[in-house]
């Protein structure tokens, strides 16, 4: 039996288990666990319950029994009260047992916040006007020049501005260290991309020359074992190259693109950049609308939800760091913060994420927004075309997670269209 009540926006469930139910649960725990006990004079698993209790204490089977009866009754409560949504595992705040009344357990938990959506009419968020300047177009052309650069080997002494291809192996106290070795590494001399005076010591070397480069790692280096340590890199200079950039003119454009003149190419670049800027402005506008709705909804997010969200944010960040060859502790050392400080810094974003999700869920629920099969197929087909596949072939290659992704795409588009239409 259970009784539910709300206290300070938290749920409180009082579960009562009769003496008979409790005894049955303890007996069941005995039957499930008796094979674990070795009692002298009895074969393993054959000792009576009373004998086991005399040897290990009267409450030896209570924990399992408690977990069983409370879990069963709590799940019954959840199944019969689907409108009550806990956002954390329940905490036992009180429990007592008497022979006549049985077991009484009091559970508490944070509830999903209740709130009312504001009217979307007259929202203040506005879409930013966008433009693309000639300087942005020139920057794109420069990026293309850099991407199509040629490296021409020269028989000369290495100088700043040259590109040196080197092999190197690092040693600390005559012992090679991890991540301190590379083959055929192309290094721009004077770029200061390597620590200390490493690049300066390459200047003046000739092809096939070997040299011991002596450096000291900085005190704030991201790898703990290397911080402040003096090191020697055994370096071999394999070649010296000059970087040659193409001249982007009418000939270059006609040879490498679908356009005939540089002016036509610039116009196309400008149109593409404008489309990108417009898409970015639209996304920013949609985020601003959702932020405003969340703010006007006055949602009070329980601390347990924030902590849970922060935990997942940190896990995700740690996963992304691992792909860069860095651990979370390395990163924390580099920025000079503890894990607790790092988590604290993310609480504001975590709360914002939660509010946005709650707002979206409520809009979807109150407006019965779904994705029909036709809408899903249309959205999927747009992607299939990009991969030169038919809709049927593309769908055959999809996983359940892929379907969920496209369903979310359709629903999110309908939600945002609804907000934007009503906010005008």
Question: Explain this structure to me?
Answer:
With 424 residues, the protein is an alpha+beta fold. It folds into 3 domains: 2-110, 2-Layer Sandwich (Alpha-Beta Plaits); 150-244, Chitinase A, domain 3, CATH 3.10.50.40; 256-423, Trigger factor, domain 2 (Orthogonal Bundle). 48% of the residues lie in helices and 19% in strands. The chain has 14 helices and 9 strands. The strands form 2 sheets. Strands 5, 6, 7, 8 and 9 form a 5-stranded antiparallel β-sheet that branches. Strands 1-2-4-3 form a 4-stranded antiparallel β-sheet. The longest helix is centred in the middle third of the chain and has 36 residues, at 262-297. It is extended and about 95 Å long. The mean pLDDT is 94.
Give the second-level CATH assignment, the architecture of the largest domain: Orthogonal Bundle
The major β-sheet equals: 5 strands, antiparallel
Poorly predicted ranges (pLDDT <50, ≥5 residues)? none
CATH superfamily of the largest domain, please?
Trigger factor, C-terminal domain
Radius of gyration: 33 Å
The termini sit apart by 52 Å
The helix fraction, in percent, is 40-55%
Mean pLDDT: 94
Structural class: alpha+beta
**CATH fold descriptor of the largest domain:** Trigger factor, domain 2
- What's the order of the H and E elements? EEHHHEEHEEEHEEHHHHHHHHH
Strand content of the residues, in percent?
15-25%
Shape: extended
User: What is the top-level CATH class of the largest domain?
Assistant: Mainly Alpha
Please work out how many helical segments DSSP would assign: 14
Tally of strands: 9
Number of domains: 3
């Amino acid at each position: 039996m259970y009784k539910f009540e709300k206290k300070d926006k938290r749920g409180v469930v009082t579960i009562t288990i009769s003496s008979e139910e409790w005894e049955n649960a303890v007996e069941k725990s005995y039957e499930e666990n008796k094979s674990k006990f070795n009692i002298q004079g009895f074969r393993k698993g054959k000792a009576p319950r009373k004998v086991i209790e005399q040897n290990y204490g009267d409450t030896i089977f209570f924990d399992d029994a408690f977990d069983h009866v409370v879990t069963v009754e709590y799940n019954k409560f959840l199944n019969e009260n689907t409108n009550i949504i806990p956002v954390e595992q329940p905490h036992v705040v009180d429990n007592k047992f008497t022979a006549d009344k049985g077991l009484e357990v009091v559970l508490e938990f944070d509830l999903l916040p209740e709130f009312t959506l504001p009217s979307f009419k007259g929202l203040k968020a506005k879409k930013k006007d966008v433009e693309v300047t000639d300087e942005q177009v020139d920057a794109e052309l420069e990026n293309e020049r850099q991407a199509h650069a040629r490296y021409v080997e020269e028989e000369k002494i290495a100088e700043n501005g040259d590109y040196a291809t080197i092999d190197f192996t690092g040693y600390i106290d005559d012992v090679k260290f991890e991540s301190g070795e590379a083959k055929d590494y192309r290094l721009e001399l004077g770029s200061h991309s390597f620590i200390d005076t490493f690049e300066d010591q390459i200047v003046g070397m000739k092809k096939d020359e070997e040299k011991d480069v002596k450096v000291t790692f900085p005190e704030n280096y991201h790898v703990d074992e290397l911080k402040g340590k003096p090191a020697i890199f055994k370096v071999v200079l394999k070649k010296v190259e000059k970087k040659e950039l193409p001249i982007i003119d009418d000939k270059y454009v006609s040879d490498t693109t679908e356009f005939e003149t540089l002016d036509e190419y610039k116009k196309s670049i400008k149109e593409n950049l404008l489309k990108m800027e417009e898409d970015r402005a639209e996304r920013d506008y949609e985020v601003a609308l959702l932020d405003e709705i969340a703010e006007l909804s006055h949602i009070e997010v329980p601390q347990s939800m924030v902590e849970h969200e922060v935990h997942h944010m940190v896990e995700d960040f740690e996963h992304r760091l691992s792909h860069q060859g860095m651990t979370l502790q390395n990163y924390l050392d580099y920025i000079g913060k503890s894990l607790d400080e790092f988590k604290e810094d993310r609480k504001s974003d975590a709360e914002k994420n939660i509010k946005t999700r709650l707002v979206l869920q409520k809009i979807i629920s109150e407006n019965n927004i779904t994705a029909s099969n036709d809408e899903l197929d249309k959205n999927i087909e747009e992607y299939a075309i990009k991969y030169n596949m038919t809709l049927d072939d593309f769908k055959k290659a999809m996983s359940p997670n892929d379907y969920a992704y496209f369903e979310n795409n359709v629903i999110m588009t309908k939600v945002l269209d609804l907000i934007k239409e009503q906010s005008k």
